[in-house]
Specification:
The protein is of the alpha+beta class. 21% of the residues lie in helices and 18% in strands. The protein has a 4-stranded antiparallel sheet with strand order 1-2-3-4.
Length: 188
């Protein structure tokens, strides 16, 4: 008796695919070859327990939201991260640039960008001198660790790395403030 290979179906229960080799479809044959059985069963991939472990500045709490773990950052913020992101080192902080990504060698323009990032745009505030809408962040000249710019476009300009030493000012008040002697300047 000859088997009609064109019309035969896989010998595995509930499989209606055509037979290709050893009485099984290609998929079941490859599983038989690879695992020793055409219908292997696998243990579910267990999540590695990361609760209480530290990854950079993040400490994993016991709470999960979907596929992410809730983490407490050293700066006090909470954030969510995937297990893989923690284990492969892609997530080591909450992402708050103001708290974690500060260089102590920032230049004049980087210091001004830092103020804008931390305190918002100057246009969102009123001028500290005339109460009109502000347009620029102005250095108050009250930082004991004052820096002097060496960049060609701002050479000799004093600045601070701390956003606390800046005040919002309109352009006219900013120019007037910077033109006055240091002795007559008042902190905001």
């Amino acid at each position: 008796m000859e088997i009609d290979m064109d019309n035969a179906t896989c010998s595995v229960t509930n499989c209606d695919l055509p037979t290709r080799k050893a009485g099984m479809c290609v998929s079941h044959y490859m599983k038989q070859w690879r695992y020793g059985t055409p219908t292997p069963t696998f243990e579910p991939r267990a999540l590695r327990d990361v609760v209480g472990r530290r990854f950079g500045a993040l400490m994993v709490t016991g709470e999960r939201i979907g596929r992410t773990w809730v983490c407490l950052c050293d700066c006090g913020n909470t954030t969510r991260a995937t297990r893989d992101g923690l284990l492969n080192g892609m997530r080591i902080a909450c992402g708050d640039k103001a708290a974690h990504y500060r260089r102590e060698d920032a230049g004049y323009y980087a210091a001004h960008d830092r103020v804008k990032r931390d305190r918002g745009r100057a246009a969102e505030h009123l001028c500290v001198d005339c109460s009109q809408p502000a347009q620029e962040w102005s250095y108050n000249h009250d930082d004991p660790d004052e820096r002097i710019s060496v960049a060609s476009s701002s050479a000799g300009a004093p600045y601070s790395l701390s956003p606390a030493h800046y005040s919002p000012r309109c352009i006219a008040c900013h120019r007037r403030f910077d033109g006055n002697p240091v002795a007559t300047r008042r902190p905001a």
